[in-house]
Amino acid sequence: MTKMYEEMTVAEGNSRGDLATRGRTATGRTPARVFVGMSGGVDSSVAAMLLLNQGYDVTGIYMKNWSRDLPGMKCPWAEDLADAKRVAVKLGIPFEVWDFEDAYREKVVEYMLREFKAGNTPNPDVMCNQEIKFKLFYEKAMARGADFIATGHYARKIDGKLARAVDENKDQTYFLYRISKEALEHTLFPIGEMLKPDVKKLAEKNGLHNAYKKESMGVCFVGEVGMKDFLKEYIDIAPGEIREAETEKVLGYHEGAVFYTIGQRHGLYLSGEKGAVNDGLPYYVVRKDLAHNIVYVSKNLNHSAIWTKELKLKDVFLRGYLSEARVLVRLRHRAPLVPAKFDGETLTFESEIKRPASGQSAVLYDGEICLGGGIII
Amino acid sequence: MIYLDHAAATPMSDKVIEAMRPYFSHDFFNPSAAYLPAKKVAADYEAAKATIAHAIGAKAADLVITAGATEANNLAFNGISRVLYLETEHDSVREVAKQRGGVAIKVLRSGLIDLEDLKAKITDETELISVALVNGEIGVIQPLAEIAAIIREVRLDRLRRGIKTRLLLHSDASQALNLLDVSVARLGVDLLTLNAAKIYGPKGVGALYASHEAKLSPAIIGGGQENGLRSGTENVPGVIGFAKAIELAKEHLNGNRKKYAELKRTLLANLQGYELIVKKHQLDNFVNLCYNGIDGERLVFLLEDHEIYVATGAACAASKGEKSHVLKAIGLSDSEIAGSLRLTLGETNTKEQLEEAARVINEVVAKEQRRLYD
Which domains does chain B have, with CATH numbers? Predict the structure, then answer.
């Protein structure tokens, strides 16, 4: 075993606090049983390896959530499954495939399509964690006699509370803020103390073949295709007008209003005489009229639709330790934390912020601790 | 490396590569062009086709060159609407047959065709029966001549009763060419699929033999190459390589059979705790093992660490995460299917390799057993 490996193991061991001893056989107790979700990527592979090294009784599970190919993109599920299994075999742990395709379609995909149709920009990863990984997977694991579940998420638990990962660049608590408290109590995040480059190095040192596997970006199953192509497959869309908000003048045409979010700058295929319509200044989406399929744009970067000091939230989910009104807010994955006041429904910022798309999440923090969050209206 | 997956792919032999080389550069001309150097390439291409055709007792004019066996299988079914196919066929037959009103013929536990089921399923509308000479997953050799005899009876009967529907026999012989003496007349087939990639030739080159009875419909339309049945500029180097590969296969036919039979004996003598899935009527280079209760795919990954490469089932079925329809058809239980390994021997293998492979396989099987039962 390399020195680096040991160091990292110790660091991880500390983060589990009072639960740390449960994984060890040296105490004479039966090792605690962990079902770890293995996606075939390096993060969950290293998570499984660390747990095994800490003495847990580890079983690897591949969650089969989506397997359909999309135009221009072969769904990589079979390769991902093989990668996950190859690692499990290398570690010498049992491995199973749990099929959640029907539930995923119902709880995640249909939610996503519904939201897009309503003009919002939903976050399916938040829903997937809430409904699949930390609900169905958790419940099934518990029913199978697990003491814990584990994932390769970059997140930590501090005194049992959901907390930001050490690797600030990879922190995934933005996607985890809605997972149930009960599931979190029985969850381990073995790589939450590690930096991504170290995870890769550790994988390579231990001969895991997927150490440098290309990361899946964005919504896992949409992958490289992009949300637009995915939506085209599932939502009836019609081209419509792009109008200037101030003048109602038709500036061009769009492929479908659902593809646009308020504040968006790119992708406006504006036609017209150069100089007359487009003087080189960019246009921003400021309003969508879904009933008439019209997208309104403006050159006014200071348009009131783009900037706001307040955000109203719905479906607020608090993790139970919000103690004061002052919070830090993250409005997008990897976006910087901004201070705000929260009254249980409305976020009030110190200065104007660029309005995030409705349907996205606002996630609240007190230092490293994730307090919960809500869906932006 | 010990490569034991020759049914999935074979390395091109040096002689094949050498034969192909000039046609990538020096003799690159389009065979359809008018000038003499191009005509020379056209002549070489035709000669290569003749070599391939002669190897199966046919004429060059009866061959349609394709980009592999899948395309040849597809072409064989083109324009035909009533099909019978063996339930253990490759997907390139099964999936097309299903679109052509295909009805599956059952196999026996031995993997051999159930001839009674075949007889029962032939109707006056049946136009084509497709049975692979050698199954790609289990290496079972089908009694094509017996099937052909049944077909002849049906044809005679149709003639007597004035039924004009023709009845053809198609066979995919991809796996067979370097171990069986394949002759279209002896097999009694009207359509035969060939594949260069399984006999140490290039990938993406195959052929469909079609008798005059077959009356194929073109699958790819364009410049009219391959008698108008498969348009597109000829793959000259591919066909030259195919010809060389089939020539070598013919030359080494008897030697190969002896060699593989011996290697197989060595392997089985050194392996422990397995059951043989196929005991008879199997191509000499196929070994199908079953370790009931163990996950064959885990064994594949464990062996991979020792640079020993084997398969669980056909490569394409495995990559889709599907259970082998072939093993299911011959009556294996789910746990027997899960515990199956396919080892296919080839020119790269030696006796020492198989002794070593057996030793490592025994070791990883024992490791998995310890993990499961200790």
Answer: 2-10+253-373 (3.90.1150.10), 14-251 (3.40.640.10)
CA distance A210 to chain B (A): 14
Percent of chain A predicted with pLDDT > 70: 85
**Cα gap A319→A324, rounded to integer Å:** 14
pLDDT recorded at residue B79 = 84
Which residues of chain A have a CB within 8 Å of the CB of B373? none
- Say if the Cβ atoms of B321 and A81 lie within 8 Å: yes
- Stretches where chain B sits below pLDDT 50 are none
**Domain of A272?**
236-298
Compute the nearest-CA separation of A34 from chain B (Å).
17
**Cβ contact, residue pair B301, A85, below 8 Å:** yes
Which residue, A276, A298, A320, sits at the end of a domain?
Answer: A298
Structure letter (DSSP) for residue A11:
H
- Residues A242, A331, single domain; the answer is no
- What is the rounded CA–CA span in Å between residue A251 and residue A280? 14
User: Two tokens at A57?
Assistant: 């009784």
The amino acid present at A158, given as its one-letter code, is I
Which residues of A are catalytically annotated? 128, 220
Q: Are residues A176 and A240 in the same domain?
A: no
Same domain, A124 and A39: yes
Task: Kindly state the DSSP code that residue A344 receives in the 8-state scheme.
Answer: S
Judged by DSSP in three states, B207 sits in strand
Beta strand residue intervals within B215-280, DSSP E: 275-276
Answer yes or no: are the C-beta atoms of B146 and B215 closer than 8 Å: no
Output the pTM of the full model: 0.86
Instruction: Kindly provide the ipTM of the predicted complex, given to two decimals.
Output: 0.84
The CATH number of the domain holding residue A282 is: 2.30.30.280
What's the pLDDT tens digit per position in A326-335?
Answer: 999 999 989 9
